[in-house]
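Good morning C.,

I know you're traveling, so I'll keep this short. The sequence:
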Amino acid sequence: MIIDLKKRLMAYKKVEIHWLDSKGVTSDWEFLDEIEPFEPVMIVSMGFLFQDNDNYKTIIQSCNETQVLGRMTIPVCSIQQIIELKQIKKQLKGKRKCKSKDK
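The tokens, ready to paste straight into the viewer:
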């Protein structure tokens, strides 16, 4: 089951997307001569590139064999940079097992 999931994920590039997002929505009345600017905010998001077309990029952050969690679509016009992340394999010494807190 884990091998099938790894094969499925290998089909998607791992990416880091730098993009501009809007900032703030005011909820109170403001005097025009006291308004300070809201500059757009640079955001960095990482995940598996699930959908890639001329209008938008969709990444997923987590998944299992049948479901995804953390799906985000970013308009291409907001994207400043896309960096493809390369896998680094690190060999762990010895076998590691997760310990349950119930035991």
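Safe travels,
E.
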